[in-house]
Each structure stands twice: as structure tokens, then as C-alpha cells.
Amino acid sequence: MNKIRINISQVLSDIMKKSVWEILRGRYPEESCSLMAEVHDSTGGGRRSLDFMVMSLWKSRGQYLSGIELKSSRSDWLRELKNPNKQEPIFKYCDYFYLLTNGKNVAQLEEIPETWGWMDIKGGRIVIKKKAPKLDPQPMDRKFLAPLLRRASSKDGFIHKSSIQTKINEAKEIGANIHARENGQALKELKDLKEGIAIFEKESGVKFPRYARFGNPSAKHIGQAVKFIQNGGDEGAKKELLRLETIAQNVLNKISAGLEPLR
């Protein structure tokens, strides 16, 4: 069963990532914005990465580049506050920069830096808790433009509806396979039990009730008979009676000795 839990856990994790992605897509539609995930500050892995970046594509709506840092726990957010230079390699190219929270009590309004905005996910949609101010970004150099364009054209790490359904189907298939194996094991154990009963009936000449239903008196009597034989049969019973006789005789002797002074 552990294998099922592990796969379901992975599915749920992917669903959460997909959920954030699609919620962001609701705010930044595909026809007007390029949404990128895990953007590095340079190619070859880079030293720093940002969870999401958005490039507005239409001049009529303002062509801007926004950075978005996702935080789902307060402890993670507090670590971010203690390292203000962490986002600088990418922050310097952004027109706007947002903290995106996905969880209860992750951040407080007074903790948000002046140069940041704050978006919060509530009920499957984005709520603006603090509007990001317009920044004065540096011109993009090729060192940063290369990883940005690579993420814009890549689908690595993006979770789409079809892949979510595929993972759910995979988990169901794993569950069905394990269920089939467990059923097979149960059938094998039942077969072994029936074979054992058949051998017992053949060698003993006693027909075991089918198959010793609860409260069946015949099954009870067979069990008592087997126990009787295991305890030595008639010879064992004789020894037990002799032992009890000795105990009774000792008790009687002690009683007689106690009564003697009273006579």
C-alpha cells in the first residue's frame, strides 16, 4: 500500500503546482502574456532562480516584465526576509515584483518591502493585497535574456490538465494492480487451506464441516477431540486423574491432622 500513497502524494503535489500555474494564467492570459516558471539568472543552471516571470506582449496594455516569488509557508517567507539580496540578480530587470502567497498567515502587510507588491491566492483566484510600484529596471543583457527566452519556449515543469489526468490514471492503475495481487494472494491462501482440510479429512476419515462455520457444534467437537489426543488421549486423562487424586489425598490428610486435637 505504501507505493499507492507515494504515487498519490506525487499526484497531489503536481495538482498543487498546476493549480498555481492555472490561477496565474487566469490573471495573465496566454494570448497577451508569456508566463514562465523557474527562471534562472543565467544559463547553465544559474545561481538564482525565480518561481514565475510574466512578460506582457501587447504595447497597448503596457509591455512589462514582472517577477513573482511564490511562498506557501511563513517560515519560508521569513527566511526570504532575512536574505534581501537573494532576488537582486533577477529583480533588477523587473518592471514589477510580487510576492505570491498560497496559504494561511504566510505574510503580514507591514512585512512586504516597499519595492514589492503582494498577491494572495484565495478561493482559486488572485487577490491583490498590495499593488506593486513601478520599478526602474536595468536593460536586459544577453546573459539573462538567454535563460528567459529558453523558459518562454520550454514546457519543462509545466503541469497541464492532460498530464494531471494521466498521473491520476497511473495511480489508479497501480492501485488496481496491487488490489489484483492482494486478491491473488488471498485466493492462494484459500486454496492452501482447502488442500490442508482435504488431507485432514482423508487421513482422519472425519469430514470437516464446510468450513467450520462459527458456532457449528461439529467443528467444536472435532476441535475438542484433536485437543484431547494432543494431551495424551486416554493415557493422558488417566495421568491427570491420578494427579488430582494425589492432591485430594494430601488435602484430606491435612484436614485429618487438623481435626485430631479436637477429638
Structure report:
This protein has helices at 2-27, 74-81, 88-91, 142-153, 161-204, 217-230, 233-259, and strands at residues 33-40, 49-56, 65-71, 96-101, 117-122, 125-130. It is elongated and about 120 Å long. Residues 1-5 have low confidence and may be disordered. A 6-stranded mixed beta sheet has the order 1-2-3-4-5-6, sandwiched between helices. The protein has 263 residues and is of the alpha/beta class. Helices cover 51% and strands 16% of the residues. Helix 1 (2-27) packs antiparallel against helix 5 (161-204). Among the domains are: 19-158; 219-252. The longest helix is centred in the last third of the chain and has 44 residues, at 161-204. The chain is built from 7 helices and 6 strands.
Per-chain topology:
Blueprint: H1 2-27, E1 33-40, E2 49-56, E3 65-71, H2 74-81, H3 88-91, E4 96-101, E5 117-122, E6 125-130, H4 142-153, H5 161-204, H6 217-230, H7 233-259
Parallel strand pairs: 3-4, 4-5
Antiparallel strand pairs: 1-2, 2-3, 5-6
Task: Sum up the structure in keywords.
7 helices; 16% strand; disordered N terminus; 6 strands; single chain; six-stranded mixed beta sheet; alpha/beta; 263 residues; elongated
Quick gist of this model?
This protein is of the alpha/beta class and 263 residues long. It is built from 7 helices and 6 strands, in the order H-E-E-E-H-H-E-E-E-H-H-H-H.
Helix and strand run: HEEEHHEEEHHHH
Task: Please state the structural category.
Answer: alpha/beta
Give the uncertain stretches in residue-range form. 1-5
Biggest sheet layout? 6 strands, mixed
The backbone outline, from C-alpha atoms, is elongated
Mean pLDDT: 79
Helical fraction: 40-55%
- Strand segment count: 6
Quickly count the helices.
7
* CA distance, first residue to last residue: 78 Å
Task: Give the percentage of residues in beta strands.
Answer: 15-25%
Widest sheet: strand ordering: 1-2-3-4-5-6
